[in-house]
Design brief:
alpha/beta; 5-stranded mixed beta sheet; 12 helices; elongated; binds iron/sulfur cluster
Length: about 375
């Protein structure tokens, strides 16, 4: 049988940086980030949200630092967080130094809105190099450097890229290359073009983001389309989905995007049919109940929930576990074999029981969730 490639492209070869315990770029798996929505100065609430994000699979978290009270909270948050903390700095260069002193795993700077940022680069590069703190140069369409806005008239891909590479060159003048870059725009077409250009012009690791992507549904689509386009070309080393929704939702979406592209070990996957006039069971209800019953499962289990016998047996056979329904009954398949036929009322509990057995076996066999191997071009 011909083998099917598991990846759409080799990863772009980027230099690797270390964001606390998480490597970004090079052969490191693409990581998922999010950002807290609490006031950073409220240490308890911020740490609580970071704990929730960590539980949802977030690997790196960013916190805003707009005031001195926020800056003062960074050291405790960085020390107590289970995942690396990046301080997000706009407007005030003094907070860059505060974040480095606080032991943050990295600092994000926005060169478009930090006052006299270019004059401070030497000092920032010195402090960051001395402490081993990477810098993310985070260019954003909404706060593009005034000089480039004048030159290009608006935030074009070229303007975003020129802004990012200009700032990099200032750091490079001082021998500092511990950098990752983002060039975010709310339009996925502009964003994808900007990252493509950036990827061709440097070897820095890239943080992907569609900025201000919108409410959960629209933001999920925009991010999936844009990240999918770039990741399928091997571009992107860490991702942040921006949603007007709780940050744990961003992590769920980001993780699912990576799993869909085989850039992260898949976990539970429900293959369910959309239903149609041939369906002989309520497929939506069945799929929802099975999904809810298996929530939190960490092993890469594929469960097929099919409404009738047209595609049911075929899909159910391809999955680890499946059901093909018809005539008030469900044929239960395990690894391609029909193991039993149960009445419709017993389909959900039978699938959950069988899933648990397979999951236990997978865990015994060491087929647990982990990071897939990454090859770089
Ligand atoms: S599996 Fe059957 S019910 Fe489901 S979409 Fe296909 S034909 Fe329709």
């Amino acid at each position: 049988m011909p083998s099917v490639p598991t990846k759409l492209a080799e990863r772009r070869r980027s230099r690797q940086i270390q964001v606390g315990t998480v490597a970004v770029g090079g052969d490191a798996p693409v990581s998922v980030q999010s950002m807290t929505t609490t006031r950073t100065a409220d240490i308890g609430a911020t740490l609580q949200q970071i704990a929730e994000l960590t539980a949802s699979g977030c690997q790196i978290v960013r916190v805003a630092c707009p005031t001195q009270d926020d800056a003062d909270a960074l050291a405790t948050i960085a020390r107590k967080s289970q995942i690396p903390v990046i301080a997000d700095i706009h407007f005030q260069p003094k907070y860059v130094f505060a974040a480095i002193d606080a032991g943050c795993a990295a600092v994000r700077v926005n060169p478009g809105n930090i006052k006299q940022f270019d004059d401070k680069v030497k000092e920032i590069a010195g402090a960051a190099a001395a402490s081993g703190t990477p810098i993310r140069i985070g260019v954003n369409a909404g706060s593009l450097d005034a000089r480039l806005l004048k030159k290009y008239g608006k935030a074009t891909p070229e303007a975003l890229v020129e802004s990012a590479l200009w700032e990099c060159s200032l750091f490079e003048e001082h021998g500092f290359r511990d950098i990752k870059i983002s060039v975010k725009h709310n339009d996925p077409v502009i964003m994808v073009n900007a990252y493509r250009q950036l990827a061709a012009q440097c070897d820095y690791p890239l943080h992907l983001g569609v900025t201000e992507a919108g409410p959960a549904f629209q933001g999920t689509i925009k991010s999936a389309v844009a990240f999918g386009a770039l990741l399928s070309e091997g571009i992107g080393d860490t991702i942040r989905v921006s949603l007007s929704a709780p940050p744990a939702e961003e992590v769920k979406v980001g993780t699912q995007i990576l799993e869909s592209l085989n850039l992260k070990q898949r976990r539970l996957e429900i293959v369910s049919c959309p239903s149609c006039g041939r369906a002989q069971v309520d497929v939506y209800k069945l799929a929802e109940e099975v999904t809810a019953g298996l929530d939190g499962m960490e092993v890469p289990l594929r469960v097929a929930v099919m409404g009738c016998v047209v595609n049911g047996p075929g899909e159910a056979r391809e999955a680890d576990l499946g059901v093909a329904s018809g005539n008030g009954k469900g044929q239960i398949f395990v690894k391609g074999e029909v193991i039993k036929t149960v009445p419709e009322s017993k389909i959900v509990e039978t699938l959950i029981d069988e899933a648990m057995k397979i999951a236990e076996q997978m865990e015994r066999d060491g087929v647990a969730s982990g990071e897939p191997e990454v090859s770089v071009s």
